[in-house]
Amino acid sequence: MVKLTKTTLFKASKPAAETVMDKTTRVVREMLDEETEQREIRTARLRTARLEREAVTPKETAKKAPKGTRKKPPAKAV
């Protein structure tokens, strides 16, 4: 009888070769993940800058009143 060991009992299966489509998918996902990470970093940086600017700048409480209605030009005679 055969002696049971790791190598005889469990045969290591070879990983399937990566197809061209799998390779393309992997590369595109890496690119998208990198772009997403950069976008999130930029968004956080801009958000903190906006909050700092809003904290320093006093808010305008009085809004400007509208200047009034604009007169329509007279209708042209045909």
Automatic annotation (TrEMBL):
Region: Disordered, residue numbers: 50-78
Residue ranges, compositional bias (Basic residues): 64-78
Start-end of Basic and acidic residues biased regions: 50-63
Protein name: Uncharacterized protein
Organism: Roseovarius litorisediminis
